[in-house]
């Protein structure tokens, strides 16, 4: 089987527990203007499953020692569901911990096959405002919530990830909305402050980067936002 991916990154931390290798699948149904992986919109390559597994198994000793594993990310891996499931099966067959990093913005994923193969879901909550999600990212918030509710019903292990994007979701009203949405779920949260590390990729790809002039949040601003989450009783994820 050929996999449509744009990167395999070794020795990642923060994409799940321990030391991990992250596989980035191409294509995404969303178009977040701050996206730091614009390659997923255009410039993907294919690699055989054998080649990908060879790379992933290369680091098995590090996964075992650090209680790490493999994270499948993107783009949006659920937009390439069959390939994603096939890769999860292969990784699991070697006894390796699996994490799936997803926007959950894909209708009706095949959770009956995904759930038994996925140890941890890393799920994005970008906003609690359906209109903003549709207008800015091009997705349906209800799809995300339907999927998250299903995972919750099934007792999946989930970490919610909130990208902090100046001008989109860091004003008081947006944060209050996100916090009250997240409080309905039993999951810990990781905040992902906006950065411009993807700007060089936009240049290389000849694409316009809408956030080229947006300043990252200061450490103080990030800490203030973290405090709001903590004050609401929301746990910080340990990864
Ligand atoms: S969901 Fe992630 S990969 Fe897709 S456009 Fe948004 S930031 Fe980029």
Q: What class, by secondary structure content?
A: alpha/beta
Main β-sheet, spatial strand arrangement: 3-1-2-4-5-6-7-8
Apparent shape: globular
Number of helices: 10
SSE run = EEHEHHEHEHEHHEHEHH
Percent of residues in β-strands? 15-25%
Mind telling me which CATH architecture this is?
Alpha-Beta Barrel
Q: How is the CATH topology named?
A: TIM Barrel
Radius of gyration: 17 Å
Low-confidence spans: none
Text of the CATH class: Alpha Beta
Kindly report the name of the CATH homologous superfamily: Aldolase class I
| Main beta-sheet annotation | 8 strands, mixed
What ligands does this structure carry? iron/sulfur cluster
Average pLDDT level: 96
Oligomer: single chain
Number of domains: 1
Q: Estimate percent helicity.
A: 25-40%
Ends: how far apart? 32 Å
Number of DSSP E strands: 8
